[in-house]
Write a structure and sequence with these properties.
single chain, alpha+beta, elongated, endosome
Length: 380
């Protein structure tokens, strides 16, 4: 599988890719296109995707075997979690049917996206204990583990053993816990290598370019390289002196400074904002009072409108006509009993009767209008 490894300068052009290699590349391109936050741990072999759920960052590791996509990929999560898609024994290996039934015609990008969607719908729970690293499970057929991107300290026949990836034993044994590196252990597990990655609240940060080789290592002799391989303090000192890490540190300091400046500006603007808030509260109280007065007037208008409706006027005319009729009858009884003379009787009786008939005529007219136009006629 020489196509996994970049050829050295002057070794000639790369051989053409066969059909399996082309299909492998298409699957990798699909994975990269579907997941912008994908981190390439080892080119064409190992990839990692971070995602945050319930304030916890979980990494999905994708390991592609040599015969991929004829062989299914191995997908695991770290740290160990409890989930129906994850093996309950170790809490890291994903046992979804999408992975176990992966074939030549499957789409790796869509498969991984489906797994992430399921994690979003049903968030996994972090386990209190479990394997300390990603479970790199190799076949027991004598095939060596997938080659890692390690630094080669000189010619292959005289150089020391390359540094293995954390979590994989150099003797092809079972996975082991990565060595504690102090501040290195505080760094996020997947380091994005794309031009820019989306962070919290949509802010973008451009990561420094990671070189394929480090010239500083070429100037060291075998003793220095062995020292670095065996002594964690020397390795840490070399790591923190890298210009890429210094750039990230400087960017972090600039970000902290900008945040402090923004906080100071917010403190300066706070009195103005408080004044605006008080002004808005005062206007809100005014609007509340105006609304209350408006509702009172609307209620009064409704009462007046009801009192002036045709049906109300008709009822009042009916009562007034009945009252005039009763007064005329009382006048007639007084005359018959001799309590009033004839002149007073004629004057009062004719007035009451005329008023009664007039009110009844108006009542009938209103009834006709109500039957024709309704109780609330509109003016034209």
């Amino acid at each position: 599988m020489n196509w996994f490894f970049p050829l050295s300068k002057g070794s000639g052009p790369l051989p053409p890719l066969n059909s399996l290699q082309q299909q492998r590349q298409r699957q990798i391109e699909s994975l990269k296109a579907a997941h912008p936050s994908l981190a390439e741990i080892q080119k064409d072999v190992e990839y990692r995707i971070p995602f945050t759920v319930n304030n916890s960052t979980i990494s999905v590791n994708i390991l592609l075997p040599p015969q991929f996509p004829q062989e299914k990929p191995m997908v695991s999560v770290y740290p160990p979690v409890g989930h129906h898609l994850v093996d309950s024994n170790n809490g890291t290996m994903i046992t979804s049917p999408l992975i176990t039934n992966f074939g030549m015609h499957s789409d790796l990008g869509k498969v991984i996206q489906s797994l992430l969607d399921e994690f979003w719908k049903s968030p996994p729970a972090l386990m209190s204990s479990g394997p300390a690293g990603f479970p790199y499970m190799y076949k027991s057929s004598g095939i060596a583990p997938y080659p890692t991107q390690a630094f080669h300290y000189g010619p292959r026949h005289v150089g020391p053993t390359p540094m293995p990836h954390p979590g994989v034993d150099s003797t092809h044994g079972p996975p082991r816990a990565p060595a504690p590196y102090g501040v290195i252990s505080d760094l996020p597990l997947p380091v994005p290598i794309g031009e820019s990655q989306a962070g919290l609240n949509g802010h973008m940060y451009k990561m420094p370019e990671i070189p394929e080789s480090f010239p500083e290592l070429c100037d060291m002799n075998l003793t220095q390289l062995s020292d670095m391989s065996e002594n964690e303090d020397v390795l840490l000192k070399f790591f923190v002196s890298l210009p890429q890490l210094k750039q990230v540190t400087n960017d972090k300091e600039e970000l902290v400074t900008s945040i402090v400046d923004m906080a100071k500006k917010n403190l300066q603007l706070e009195p103005q904002l408080e004044g605006k808030r008080q002004e808005m509260l005062y206007k809100y109280e005014q609007l509340t009072q105006m609304k209350s007065a408006f509702e009172t007037k609307m209620q009064r208008q409704h009462e007046l409108s009801e009192s002036c409706s045709l049906s109300t006027l008709q009822a009042r005319l009916k009562v007034a006509a009945h009252q005039a009729e009763e007064e005329s009858e009382e006048t007639a009884e007084n005359f018959l009993e001799g309590r009033i003379d004839i002149d007073e009787f004629l004057t009062s009786f004719m007035e009451k009767r005329t008023l009664c008939h007039s009110r009844r005529a108006k009542e009938e007219k209103l009834q006709q209008s109500i039957n024709t136009h309704g109780p609330f006629p509109t003016s034209h």
